[in-house]
């Protein structure tokens, strides 16, 4: 196994292009200069026979599932741990010949040992926007091993440009997996990239990938403050407007509220099926699909990617619904259900935020260290629309909302959307919430939701009456929230409890 000799002939051209920061396209190499410098080699290794022998060896290895908010894929252990002659030859080739080549091109002294794994992306797998910065990583590399890959299968390496704040903005270049091509770039503050979702049931995106390391000063973090949406305070409802004109009257009775309180106190979450009157729900759903609604992208992509409606463009039913759910009577109802001191919270510097959000395939929100919401505590409310047009089953697809616990000893809360369900979740300081990307096949359409947060930043030791126990929904909660029991009688449910 050895490098294609013709690549060495391209070395002077590549070196000149990097020095002058000019793009290059030649027979065996390409230099991309925007949005950041990337080198792409074609026919990287000489001889298909040795490559196919390597692939057979890789197919015998165990690929472990990697599934979290950032990515879903399969990967091996570091290939240094694999006792295979051809894999050992590959590692030696990259650590010596390739490292020497890249060290000269980038004018950087590399450490002798690399990080190297094999990765598989199958149908539905992805890697969301990130910059690869971590400790002493210097150069990232990917060697593509899938033959006859089609662009319509996805799996491209997407490169993001940056906005004025140094955050990723939009995809400006796609590099599709081409057999025996090798892609590399210096890891930097603005090397934002992702692997787009693989969307073929028969495709396997196989790569060898990793990093060359170097002793160099740590990269300064990009300064960015993720602001909280504008705060509002609850107001009285207009004359002749009542909660009962919008909210299912079942949830306005004392016995029902008592039952909901029992569930909420046990789980710190509760879902109210059929929360809105049927006509209100249907009219609001129709309003959400009006062409007059103006949607704007909510980013940046290394934190989130969804659409948010301009409130001023919403039709009458939705405008009225937002007025109701942020009103003083609604706050009183939420206090009664949750036993949380929401009014006290608002009087002590708190506020309400509300967004009308659109979620579809490829949309997500991520956990991240600088999340402002992790510094808040209070109550989150979700009201879901058009779930039936998106999901085949309540717990079968992506698109769930996950709450990461404040400590490792606790479990997170899982919310699976249900049409016309209002979900309440108590949130403590240190917890963060994110929405997992939705499976493409399951999300042909769009899910829409009203997301409201009532919170304050200061923290309140007596906001919660007792500490969280298990936050994962109980069997009772899941039964209560499921589609099959969406009209469950709360009186009998409370008797069961």
UniProtKB/TrEMBL annotation:
Its cofactor is L-ascorbate. The keyword Oxidoreductase applies. InterPro entries: Oxoglutarate/Fe-dep_Oase_C, Pro_4_hyd_alph, TPA1/OFD1_N, uS12_prolyl_hydroxylase. Keywords: Dioxygenase, Oxidoreductase, Vitamin C. GO terms for molecular function: iron ion binding; L-ascorbic acid binding; peptidyl-proline dioxygenase activity. SMART domains: P4Hc. One of its GO terms (biological process) is regulation of translational termination. Residues 36-213 form the Prolyl 4-hydroxylase alpha subunit domain. GO terms for cellular component: cytoplasm. It comes from the Eukaryota. Pfam families: 2OG-FeII_Oxy_4, Ofd1_CTDD. This is Prolyl 4-hydroxylase alpha subunit domain-containing protein.
């Amino acid at each position: 196994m050895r490098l294609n000799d013709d690549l060495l002939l391209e070395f002077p051209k590549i070196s000149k292009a990097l020095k002058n920061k000019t793009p290059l396209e030649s027979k065996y190499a390409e230099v991309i200069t925007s949005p950041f410098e990337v080198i792409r080699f074609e026919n990287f290794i000489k001889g298909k026979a040795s490559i196919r022998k390597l692939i057979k060896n890789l197919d015998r290895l165990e690929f472990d599932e990697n599934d979290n908010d950032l990515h879903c894929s399969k990967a091996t252990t570091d290939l240094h741990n694999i006792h295979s002659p051809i894999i050992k030859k590959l590692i030696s080739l990259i650590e010596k010949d390739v490292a020497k080549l890249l060290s000269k091109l980038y004018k950087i002294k590399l450490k002798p040992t690399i990080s190297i794994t094999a990765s598989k992306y199958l149908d539905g797998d992805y890697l969301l926007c990130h910059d690869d910065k971590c400790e002493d990583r210097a150069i990232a590399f990917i060697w593509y091993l899938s033959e006859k890959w089609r662009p319509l299968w996805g799996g491209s390496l997407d490169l993001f440009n940056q906005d004025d704040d140094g955050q990723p903005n939009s995809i400006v270049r796609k590099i599709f997996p081409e057999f025996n091509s090798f892609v590399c770039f210096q890891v930097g503050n603005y090397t934002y990239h992702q692997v787009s979702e693989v969307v073929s049931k028969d495709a396997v995106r196989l790569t060898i990938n990793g990093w060359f390391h170097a002793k160099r000063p740590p990269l300064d973090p990009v300064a960015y403050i993720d602001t909280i949406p504008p705060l509002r305070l609850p107001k009285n409802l207009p004359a002749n407007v009542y909660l009962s004109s919008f909210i299912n009257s079942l949830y306005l009775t004392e016995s029902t509220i008592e039952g909901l309180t029992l569930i909420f106190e046990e789980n710190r979450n509760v879902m109210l099926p059929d929360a809105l009157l049927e006509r209100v729900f249907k009219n609001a759903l129709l309003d959400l699909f009006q062409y007059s609604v103006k949607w704007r992208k909510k980013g940046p992509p290394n934190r989130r990617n969804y659409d948010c409606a301009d409130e001023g463009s919403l039709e009458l039913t939705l405008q009225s619904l937002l007025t109701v759910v942020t009103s003083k009577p609604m706050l009183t109802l939420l206090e009664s259900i949750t036993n949380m001191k929401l009014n006290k919270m608002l009087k002590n510097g708190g506020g309400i935020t509300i967004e009308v959000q659109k979620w579809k395939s490829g949309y997500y929100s991520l956990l991240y260290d600088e999340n402002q919401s992790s510094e808040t505590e209070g109550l989150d409310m979700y009201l879901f629309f058009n779930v039936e047009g998106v999901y085949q089953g309540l717990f079968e697809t992506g698109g769930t909302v996950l709450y990461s616990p404040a400590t490792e000893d606790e479990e997170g809360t899982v919310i699976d959307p249900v049409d016309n369900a209002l979900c309440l979740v108590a949130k403590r300081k240190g917890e963060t919430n994110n929405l997992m990307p939705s499976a493409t096949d399951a999300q042909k359409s769009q899910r829409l939701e009203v997301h409201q947060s009532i919170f304050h930043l200061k923290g309140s030791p007596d906001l919660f009456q007792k500490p969280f126990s298990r936050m994962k929904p109980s069997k009772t909660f899941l039964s209560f929230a499921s589609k099959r029991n969406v009209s469950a009688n709360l009186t009998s449910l409370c008797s069961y409890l």
